Amino acid sequence: MTRRLLLAALLVVVCTACGGAPSTPTGAPSKAVTLGFSAWPGWFPWQVAQEKGLFAKNGVEVELKYFDSYTDSLTALATGNIDANSQTLNDTLASISGGAKQTVVLVNDNSTGNDQIIARSGISSVAGLKGKTVAAEQGTVDHYLLLLALRKAGLTQADITFKPLPTDAAAAAFKAGQVDAVGAFAPFTTTALELPGSAAVATSKDFPGAIPDHLVVSRTLASSRPEVVQGLVKTWFDTLAWIGANKAEARTIMAKRAGVSEQAYAEYDAGTTIFSLADNREAFSSGSLERQAKEIAAFLTESGLADAAPPLDGLLDPRFVQGVSS
């Protein structure tokens, strides 16, 4: 399972789709919409929504599609094979760079510790990574976190040996002692930390707001079927309320979907800050999301993860969180 985007591969797919490759047009005359999600604690509430019938209560027929590969979910949205997806702001910007037409309609969460740079025993800081081998999924948010951490320590990627691997393989390679450090996200941080003496030397908590996660929809869906998007957004907040009132049952559902024990799942809570309706409205209205998008876009370009800064027009659509009754 991977949570983050291999940019080069996605650009090829998006450009192919733009050139006329067969795909199912988003917003085609079908009552049901397909919502994608993958392995990340801030997205498992969608499983609760499905099992508790909360989509139907809000008048939307949803095919909830779980992707073992996060990258596959990004490709599916970019090519019109699903209508909506759970993905990061970084990866949304990368998709837009490739020509995709997408818009952010909801902030699920901010990563506040569940993305980590984990090093073996004997390496106690990011500075200690100089000359060492570090694995992460290339062009992904954990690659982005690694670059942020290196820059803060006065280093660049040229100061390390970077080993590009899918996140699950990277965590496994680190656990096996094949690399000195790894960039990974929960639940794969659990795997990496099974190496005796290993510890996180940098996390997303060190870079507040750098890794926001969202519900992202095609712009065609947002313009042609806004009532459906409104229903998805309303369902999210109803789901959070249900989880708050039924914590034990909700944790059982989400841990099962994650493939981890309930105890392990509980440990992810502090590393993912779920955004309330008030948090969402503030994020959209204050300009903080726009500022973060500009910072990420600039960093992607400066670090060579994108050839050009993506256009931000139409990226953020606040009307759906504004349309939810308090």
UniProtKB/TrEMBL annotation:
Chief place of localization: periplasm
Q: Which InterPro entries match?
A: ABC_SsuA_sub-bd (IPR010067)
Where does the record locate the signal sequence feature? 1-20
Give the organism, scientific name: Nonomuraea marmarensis
Location comes to: Periplasm
Name of the protein this chain belongs to: ABC transporter substrate-binding protein
Keyword annotations for this protein?
Signal
Query: What family is it from?
Result: Belongs to the bacterial solute-binding protein SsuA/TauA family.
- Can you tell which superkingdom this protein's organism belongs to? Bacteria
